Amino acid sequence: MVADTEFFTLSDKLRALDKKEGTSREETYIKGKLKERLNDTKQVLVLVGDSTKDLYKYVRWEIEVAINMDIPIIAVNLNKVNKAHVKTPPILKNKAYFVSVPYEVKKIKHALDKFPAEYHRKKEEAPDSRTYNWDKISL
Predict the structure, then answer these.
(1) Segment 61-86, tens digit of pLDDT
(2) Are residues 56 and 112 in the same domain?
(3) Predicted TM-score (pTM) of this structure
(4) Which of 59, 60, 131, 133 could form a disulfide bond with 55, CB atoms 3.0-4.6 angstroms apart?
(5) Which domain holds residue 112?
(6) Is residue 53 located within the same domain as residue 69?
(7) What is the DSSP letter of 28?
(8) How far is residue 31's CA from residue 41's CA, in Å, rounded to a whole number?
(9) Are strands 73-77 and 97-102 parallel, antiparallel or unpaired?
(10) Peptide bond before residue 90 is cis, with ω within 30 degrees of 0
């Protein structure tokens, strides 16, 4: 159920690191901590905005790790487009079976509830993206 979901972002981790005295913000350390979090993750939300496809140091790396760890990925389009598009990170379009949804709470919740089971049935279709026909779904 979505209400029980704990959300975690890179910025949360960086703020936590800033509060710890003597903690290094080195890339290796941050990636290690992020991978620990991904080990306990059931699905990943990728916010797709103007610069997402160009963010390589952490965003592309997190997506690649999620793909390799067999974690379902939901691409949430900040421009509210209901499909993969030019701003979608290439690694998703080239390597993953994922769903794209517009940045609307009810539609994101629907994907969080429904996509993981579908992902595990259809992941062999990768690379491919899924969209929902919202006219046929009662939210």
Answers:
(1) 899 999 999 999 999 999 999 999 99
(2) yes
(3) 0.81
(4) 59
(5) 43-127
(6) yes
(7) H
(8) 15
(9) parallel
(10) no
Six-digit token string for 40: 């306990």
Percent of the chain with pLDDT over 70: 82
Residue 95's Cβ-side half-sphere holds a number of Cα atoms within 13 Å equal to: 17
Residue 83 vs residues 7, 94, 97, 102, 131: alpha-carbon distances, Å? 23, 15, 13, 8, 6
Cα–Cα distance, 5 to 7 (Å, whole number): 6
Could you tell me which residues come within 8 angstroms of residue 114 by beta carbon, excluding any fewer than 6 positions away?
none
CB 103 within 8 A of CB 48: no
For 66, the 3-state DSSP assignment is helix
pLDDT of residue 10: 55
Distance of CA 41 to the CA centre of its chain: 11
Residues 21 and 48 in one domain: no
Query: Which residue carries 């003597």 as its tokens?
Result: 22
